[in-house]
Amino acid sequence: MNQQEITAQLREWGVRVTPQRLAIAEAVINSTDHPSVQQIFERVRDHFPSMTLATIYSTLDVLERSGLIQELPFPQYSRYESNLEPHVNLVCVKCGNVTDATVGQEMVARLKSQISSESSFQVAWQRVDFHGWCSTCAAARERENLSPV
Amino acid sequence: MNQQEITAQLREWGVRVTPQRLAIAEAVINSTDHPSVQQIFERVRDHFPSMTLATIYSTLDVLERSGLIQELPFPQYSRYESNLEPHVNLVCVKCGNVTDATVGQEMVARLKSQISSESSFQVAWQRVDFHGWCSTCAAARERENLSPV
DNA sequence: TTTACTGCAAAGGGTTTGCATGAGG
DNA sequence: CCTCATGCAAACCCTTTGCAGTAAA
User: Fold this and answer.
1) Does B114 contact chain A (CB < 8 Å)?
2) Separation of B37 CA and D13 C1' (Å)
3) CB contact under 8 A, A111 and B108
4) What Å value separates CA A12 and C1' C19?
5) Are residues B89 and B79 in the same domain?
6) Same domain for B78 and B97?
7) What residues contact A47, with CB distance under 8 A and at least 6 apart?
8) Based on the domain organization, do B145 and B120 belong to the same domain?
9) Band (B145; pLDDT cuts 50, 70, 90)
10) What is the chain A residue with the closest CA to B127?
11) In chain B, which residue's Cα lies nearest the Cα of A128?
């Protein structure tokens, strides 16, 4: 998603398009690592040294209500998601990294259809997280088990 | 799950079994509404008037590490889940109620199998939330749309 | 008896709010 | 030009921590 599309989406919701908002939106939308508020802050600070966290929070709120991103609450702080299509997030319990799974999209979409058709709940959006060990941390754990200290 | 099973599970993890812990565990496990810390506090306070939130937080931490419950972070505060089997949570964006869906368990289980077999991620547990309007709030919204103020 | 838990109070830290200045439309 | 957004600081509130007394095993 480029600046023009983001601008159009924001205008549609009647909110002003500022350079700060565009920078924050791009930082989230053009990322795949589900960044936290702090991470977004650090990535935008280069271009806007005077920006504060209050602007980040305010803008993320606008972006969510404009349908561009979704907040993903985690125990310590929230992360932000730009992939609103049905998919699976893989959350590593060791390193904390969050990635989109490359498989499972179709089944999540079918699950969404099932909930919509077989229950009286009107689905708007979904969050599917699988928690466990990413390949890197799983390999490290394997080594520790083979050669304990 | 009754007190004896909870006691056995806690002993297995080498933690002491106190009346407070049993009461908190039962308040979460024998509930279906995914209670918050405050709600658990209110439900246990009748039997333990001197209990403080610190004990609730400490005990929920123990229960989670003992594999009895799971924390579900939400934007304002966490809720707690006792159904660790693959299933779908329905989160109402209007009233905030969280319920377990009566359908979709099998598909979540199949999704879990797919992730385990077709990716290098080692799944430990999952959280599947569908956000939208529960039947009550959907009906209310329908009425508002038909007869706007 | 030993060790860990409870209860109380204070601190911590991510998030929100109020307000004056400044910029978008 | 009017309204809304930004930036700064302070407040908020959920959660965590430290410690003395107390109960589990």
Assistant:
1) yes
2) 13
3) yes
4) 29
5) no
6) no
7) A23
8) yes
9) confident
10) A129
11) B128
Q: A15 and A58: one domain?
A: yes
Band of residue A146 on the pLDDT scale cut at 50, 70, 90: confident
Q: What is the DSSP letter of B125?
A: E
**What is the pTM assigned to this prediction?**
0.95
Residue A67: which domain range?
A: 1-83
Binary contact (A131, B125; C-beta < 8 A): yes
List the one residue out of B91, B128, B95, B77 whose CA is nearest residue A130.
B128
Contact A127 B123 (CB under 8 A): no
**What six digits make up the tokens of B31?**
């509930």
Nearest chain B residue to A90 by CA: give it. B121
pLDDT averaged over every residue in chain A: 96
How many angstroms separate the Cα of A85 from the Cα of each of A62, A69, A114, A115, B103?
A: 19, 11, 16, 16, 21
How far, in Å, is the CA of A12 from the C1' of nucleotide D17?
47
Closest residue to D16 by CA to C1' distance?
A: B54
The answer on A71 and A7 residing in a single domain is: yes
Last residue of a domain, one of A83, A99, A127: A83
Q: Does residue A112 belong to the interface with chain B, where contact is any CB pair within 8 Å?
A: yes
Task: Give the helix ranges, DSSP H, for B69-127.
Answer: 105-118
Q: What is the mean pLDDT of residues B89-109?
A: 97
User: What is the count of structural domains for chain B?
Assistant: 2
Q: Where are the alpha helices (DSSP H) in chain A?
A: 3-12, 19-29, 37-45, 53-65, 105-118, 135-146
